[in-house]
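quick q for whoever's on today - can somebody do inverse folding on this one?? i tried earlier but teh output was garbage lol. tokens:
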């Protein structure tokens, strides 16, 4: 998977820099072409001679090469690379990357890079646990960078805790895994619903729910990354799509969402119903703002909204894959299983509001996938991006069959 790939290996000044030599060797052995970019303090830990001998290329550290005055173009490097790995990534470099402090070649290259970026932090446990580091890593995640979590164990300080850079073999595995799925959905049309729906009461008020849309957007990004043609039909959310190959349609109510879903479903291979659709809309919607004066308390009459998943489930053709979500508070498994039948789903993704850090608004989720034959797969607590990968892996497996 790595063979022939252009990889930038960014090395910062930390004791784990010695492991970067092994990482470089593994990448070269796997057939990659590697350009090392090292920070000035990185050179205090490992010499450029060792690195250039292994990579077969001069190591870049400064903006200009001292003896010739030639300029090292971070822009060209950023365009050349298929992936950039920063290992070890120190707290300082993570902070600079998160905030655009472009004062060395490594950070300018990072800011110019168009390719996927993998960050393997390495630092002492208290530095890693500091809110500043946590916030900066969250920022990097929000830019779409992949964080390769450090392991726990004995650190250079002899303290024991989380902060050891992940072993080179596992960093290579993470990159191989990334490339192995990079086009397995090439050209597959995927329809995704996301976010809440808003059901109008009057021109200034609505009935809504707490859905942030993060899970649906993470699914759209994962599908697009793997080459799918994605139509994302979303209720009102404060999110942006990163991948240009996502065709986004914004809607407000369940009925508007249904109309768009029905149009897009006809030529979709896969449909993932991730939206938290309001079950009811307002029957006696007011055309002008409901006022407070007078003694009467307004009565809002509700009527049932269409069930979008069930509507398209009833029209599902052979070869189409329909996936639903169930966010439950109790009787989770039996409720989820009943929805598979009712909506004619191929599988359902269950998350329980009883699980801490799962469900609405959070950046993490904990899911169980239940298929139409009743088989269950339970997953641990993960970021929504990782959960999206697990769900799309399940779909890709079915397509491959
Ligand atoms: N769904 C839908 N249209 C609706 C309601 C739900 O497409 N009007 C989809 C959701 O996107 C989700 C699945 O159906 O994939 C289950 O949603 P949920 O709200 O849990 O199910 P409901 O059928 O509404 O059941 P209840 O609210 O009673 O639990």
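ok took a stab at it. sequence:
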């Amino acid at each position: 998977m790595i063979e022939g790939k252009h990889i930038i290996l960014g090395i910062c000044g930390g004791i784990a820099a010695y492991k970067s030599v092994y990482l470089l060797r593994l990448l070269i052995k796997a057939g990659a072409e590697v350009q090392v970019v090292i920070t000035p303090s990185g050179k205090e830990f490992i010499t450029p001679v060792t690195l250039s001998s292994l990579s077969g290329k001069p190591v870049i550290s400064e903006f200009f090469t001292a003896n010739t005055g030639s300029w090292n173009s971070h822009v060209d490097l950023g365009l050349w690379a298929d992936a950039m790995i920063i290992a070890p990534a120190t707290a300082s470099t993570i902070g600079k990357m998160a905030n655009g402090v472009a004062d060395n070649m490594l950070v300018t290259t990072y800011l110019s890079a168009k390719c996927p970026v993998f960050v393997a932090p390495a630092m002492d446990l208290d530095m890693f646990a500091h809110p500043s580091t946590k916030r900066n890593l969250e920022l990097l995640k929000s830019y779409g960078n992949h964080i390769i979590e450090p392991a726990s164990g004995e650190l250079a300080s002899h303290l024991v805790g989380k902060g050891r850079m992940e072993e080179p073999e596992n960093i290579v595995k993470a990159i191989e895994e990334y490339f192995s799925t990079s086009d397995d959905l090439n050209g597959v049309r995927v329809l995704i619903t996301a976010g809440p729906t808003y059901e109008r009461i009057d021109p200034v008020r609505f009935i809504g729910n707490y859905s942030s849309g993060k899970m649906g957007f993470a699914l759209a990004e994962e599908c697009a990354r793997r080459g799918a043609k994605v139509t994302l039909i979303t209720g009102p959310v404060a999110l942006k799509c990163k991948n240009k190959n996502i065709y986004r349609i914004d809607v407000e109510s369940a009925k508007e969402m249904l109309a768009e879903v029905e149009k897009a479903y006809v030529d979709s291979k896969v449909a993932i119903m991730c939206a938290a659709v309001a079950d009811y809309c307002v029957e006696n919607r007011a055309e002008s703002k409901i006022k407070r004066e007078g003694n009467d308390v307004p009565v809002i009459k509700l009527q049932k909204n269409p069930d979008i998943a069930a509507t398209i489930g009833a029209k599902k053709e052979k070869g189409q894959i329909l996936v639903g979500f169930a966010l439950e508070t109790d009787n989770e498994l039996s409720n989820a299983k009943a929805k598979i039948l009712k909506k004619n789903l191929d599988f359902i993704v269950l998350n329980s509001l009883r699980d801490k850090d799962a469900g609405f608004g959070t950046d993490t989720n904990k899911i169980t996938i239940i298929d139409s034959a009743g088989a269950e797969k339970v997953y641990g607590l993960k970021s929504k991006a990782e959960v999206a990968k697990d769900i799309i892996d399940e779909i890709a497996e079915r397509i491959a069959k």
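fwiw The mean pLDDT is 93. also The chain has 13 helices and 21 strands. so keep that in mind when u check it
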